[in-house]
Amino acid sequence: MPDTHDSPREPVPVRRILRLFRPHWRTLAVVGLLVGLSSLVSVASPFLLREVLDVALPQQRLGLLSLLIGGMIAVAVATSVFNVLQTYLSTRVGQHVMHGLRSAVYARLQRMSLAFFTRTRTGEVQSRIANDIGGMQSTVTSTATSLVSNVTTVVATVVAMLALDWRLTVVSLLLMPLFVWISRRVGSERKKITARRQQQLATMSSSVQESLSVSGILLGRTMGRSASLTDTFADESQRLARLEVESSMAGRWRMSTIQIVMAALPALIYWSAGVTSAFGVPMISLGTLVAFVTLQQTLFRPTMSLLQTGVELQSSLALFHRIFEYLDLPVDITEPTRPVALNPVRGEVRFDDVSFSYDGAEPTLEHVDLTVPAGGSLAIVGETGSGKTTLSYLVPRLYDVTGGAVTIDGVDVRELSFDTLARAVGVVSQETYLLHASVADNLRFAKPDATDDELVAAARAAQIHEHIAALPDGYDTLVGERGYRFSGGEKQRLAIARTILRDPPILVLDEATSALDTQTELAVQQAINDLAAGRTTITIAHRLSTVRDADQIVVLDRGRVAEGGTHEELLAEGGLYAALVDRDASPLATV
């Protein structure tokens, strides 16, 4: 999981950020041309103004005056047109970059193993995609063009000022190094605060996601913690508010000082002109002086913008760092470069000396050797925490083994493409997840091109069609957030129907009937038995009544295969399985 503490961070290479814009270099070149033209054209206005004041008006040359005024209007029109075009192009490029970042982060997360999501808060992931990338919008959409525009304007303006009077230009630029130093200090402060603010946003997103989901509301209400959760959220919100104030005020007084000094510079220029003339230096013409002050004011805007852009760039580096953290996450489950084809899939599953541990912890599974023939059925039982679910998750490669191999038809699952595995192995887990969509859309998630008749057939096989048909909107009924409009048993049957629709040759049923009442369980179990005919089936169950007909049953104990055989053979041994059966049949057993 990415580091979310305020520990020192490696600087984000600027080259890496620039590479994001490389595919759009042609458009950016056009933007640069437009920006350059706009900056150069805008500098012409003070020179036109000088001619108006020094020549056209004193000499009462109305023709020249009209021409100069027309030129000033043309400059304004051209500048506006150039600005609109470059804003459109730069915004389009920026949005393409943001789209690329969002898609890249999402694609990276889709490749992460299940272990990553078991240790990472959902709100943290959502915050990276929404808040962090969203926070970079102004940086990627306008900062680049702002830099080009302001640098071009500053250079063109300084050249024009030198052309008017080099002495006044030196006076105007004396304090510029101090301004740059101040802005860098302010940017460094903002960068640190931005990192803390984004982490606080992620914490708040996690809090909202956890406490305002259906499950969170149920937990808070039933545990009497609604008030406590409200107080906790208020504290988190207050911390964010303080960070927002800090971010807004960081260096504000120093930047205001720069603004005051630059606003006072015109007065300094008038004073300098008066002083120089008092010492015998030829008097600067009124037109030149007004044109120079106009250029100085023109210089003020892009200079302040450049200083502010520098501050924002340093702040945005914290956001880029958080995004690159996710893009740089090591993918521990990778697709093979040259995947092996399985066509058709017979369905033999073998666990060959399989071992597994979570993040280097104590082994969850050790030296498991099992073979499930094609079309055969394997039931895995054992105490809670014995490794049953983990073992079943190795077949669809939700985790990768840390020792040994899992094979399908003799091919290591690590040599199969993800699409091949998804087509070969269907999983119905004990935690049913339904999308906030219609029943039909939830079923078609398994097979997007499924016909209505296929949906009905799958629902009938899972013993859920009659219930769906009785709903006011039938298969168009919205299931609600995480399917909370349906009971646990109904959700489980929808999940089974979804897997039936996919029609995989290998089935992994992890407590697939755990949420069903006895009568429905029998009906669904019969449907599963019908579906399993000719298919390889691996069943994880606490209710031993659902697995007694399996071809082979193994008992896991602390990650190892303790016993194996048929139901009758294991009962005759009188070992762990027999003890589990006795406990399962006890009136006090939890079912």
Automatic annotation (TrEMBL):
Domain ABC transmembrane type-1: 29-315
InterPro entries cross-referenced by the UniProt entry: AAA+_ATPase, ABC1_TM_dom, ABC1_TM_sf, ABC_transporter-like_ATP-bd, ABC_transporter-like_CS, P-loop_NTPase, Type_1_exporter
Keywords: ATP-binding, Membrane, Nucleotide-binding, Transmembrane, Transmembrane helix, Transport
Transmembrane segments: 25-44, 64-85, 144-164, 170-187, 253-271
Coiled coil: none
Localization per Swiss-Prot or TrEMBL: Cell membrane
ABC transporter domain residues: 349-583
GO cellular component terms, semicolon-separated: plasma membrane
Membrane topology: Multi-pass membrane protein
GO molecular function: ABC-type oligopeptide transporter activity; ATP binding; ATP hydrolysis activity
Record-linked PANTHER family: ATP-BINDING CASSETTE SUB-FAMILY B MEMBER 10, MITOCHONDRIAL, ATP-DEPENDENT PERMEASE MDL1, MITOCHONDRIAL
Annotated function: ABC transporter involved in fatty acid import. Transmembrane domains (TMD) form a pore in the membrane and the ATP-binding domain (NBD) is responsible for energy generation.
Family affiliation: Belongs to the ABC transporter superfamily. Lipid exporter (TC 3.A.1.106) family.
This protein's name: Fatty acid ABC transporter ATP-binding/permease protein
